[in-house]
Amino acid sequence: MLAGVLASFAGRFGRVEPRRTAVAFVTGLLADIEVKTCWQLAEQAGHARPDAMQRLLYRAVWDADAVRDDLRQVIVERFGDPDGVLVVDETGDLKKGVHSVGVQRQYTGTAGRIENAQVGVFLGYASEHGHTLIDRRVYLPVSWTEDRDRCQDAGVPDEVEFATKPELAADMVTAAVDADVPARWVAADEAYGNSSAFRAHLRQHRLGYVLAVSRSHLVPLDGGKVKVRADHVAADLPASAWQRRSAGAGSKGPRFYDWAWLDEVTTDADPDDSGRHSLLIRRNTSTGELAFYRCWTPQSATLAQLVRVAGIRWTVEVAFQAAKSQVGLDQHQVRRWDSWHRFTTLALAALAILAICAADAADEPPKSDLIKLTVNEVRRLINAFIIRPIHELAHRLRWSQWRRRHQARARQAHYERRLNADLQP
Q: For the chain, what percentages of helix, strand and coil (3-state, to nearest 5) are there?
């Protein structure tokens, strides 16, 4: 599987050197090393210096979007299903400084508060066969897009303008539809569900959706004549309106919630879209906490279908956790536009390898005393049977000396900059 995924986009490299480096890069992301930056990946690959890895991300000639397309095709061939779900979400990487593309003080769920961070919007694909991430966009705040000099320094193309996160998500959904990714549904959290433009975009593609919305979201009822807050709608429901159903299997068994479904909701944008609008409400059986979903389907749907899609949204959070803990999605130390997209694309390739291997193993007859192979366990086995770490003392010593020499030069340059600044009148 490792060789097959890497071979799928090998033709995107015009020269053998970057092609081999890309193979070593993805293999390094799967390796059992503490931090997955160019320095560590180069040492793992047996290189004498990090130049080749850095060149792959900065100056080598290759198209990260084309590699993304090839990778998406591999994923579709393995996980594709007519009832597939496109799942949208974002994740942030905490950063220092102000030079990394897209960085500013902004809210990120990674920290649960406003921090200096870089945010990426991702598209996942999920079906009964498996799930993983298939696309990515870096989010550029207004503070970036209004400062073209700053964008130029970070390599942001001149044609890139400000786009909201729902607009980035809509762009990825359109790309997936244009690439014939088999999907019938879209799921996302309330950052996207609250966007009427995003919902309208999905309806234009005739994609059913189950999108989380805020408790204050106004739900159009009675033919659109009145709009009621979602939490007020829930408060007026009788006990008979709730049904207990599973939103899918979790690590501890089925995830049961109480669900209420109002199928008389109308649209506040286009009453002639010929689809079925509804409001889905989820209640935690232990805490009573409520969650709300705006739903739309081109044809009639069942409660079981909507509950399934609502539950599948959590696969993107699982994918983020695996991508960061297993293949270093958040460990890059790059600043430029191209470098972010290149590193992220190669990380998605490494994640796809793990996801497909885990899915292949899950197809084997189950054993009563073993759980199915997880993505984490697959990576451990890859390191045990495929990736051979270099133990030669001379190689390790050369890298120790290289790091210390590089750090000494960096420290000296830092001291000189501070001294020159202090001497300025």
A: 45, 20, 35
Q: Which residues contact 343 (CB under 8 A, 6 or more apart)?
A: 57, 332, 334
pTM > 0.90: yes or no? yes
345: number of CA atoms within 13 Å, CB side?
A: 24
Rounded Cα distance, 152 and 355, in Å: 36
Residues 22 and 20: their CA atoms lie apart, in Å, by 5
CA pair distance 53, 39, nearest whole angstrom:
8
What's the pLDDT score for residue 271?
54
Q: Please check the confidence at residue 396 and state whether its pLDDT lies above 80.
A: yes
Instruction: Enumerate the β-bridge partners of residue 232.
Output: none
The answer to whether the beta carbons of residues 282 and 259 sit under 8 Å apart is: yes
Query: Would you give the distance in Å from CA 75 to the centre of its chain?
Result: 14
User: So where are the chain's domains?
Assistant: 190-306, 391-423
Task: Say if residues 88 and 173 touch (Cβ distance below 8 Å).
Answer: yes
Both tokens of 194, joined, read 């609250």
Predicted confidence at residue 328, as pLDDT, reads: 94
**pLDDT tens by residue, 59-110:** 999 999 999 999 999 999 999 999 999 999 999 988 888 889 999 998 888 7
Chain centroid to CA 368: 33
Contact indicator for 351, 248 with CB cutoff of 8 Å: no
Buried b (16+ CB within 10 A) or exposed e, 113-125: eebbbbbbbbbbb
* CB-CB contact of 168 with 136 (8 Å): no
Pairing of strands 276-283, 290-297: antiparallel
Sequence-distant (≥ 6) Cβ neighbours of residue 182 within 8 angstroms: 76, 80, 81, 82, 84
Per-residue confidence (pLDDT) for residue 425, from 0 to 100? 64
What phi and psi values does residue 105 have, to the nearest 5 degrees?
A: -75, 120
- 380-395 pLDDT, tens digit per residue, is 999 999 888 887 899 9
**Residues 22, 13 contacting (CB under 8 angstroms):** yes
What's the CA dihedral at 109, 110, 113, 117 to 10 degrees?
A: -110
Instruction: Answer yes or no: are the C-beta atoms of 263 and 242 closer than 8 Å.
Output: no
In the three-class reduction of DSSP (H, G, I as helix; E, B as strand; rest coil), residue 127 is classed as strand
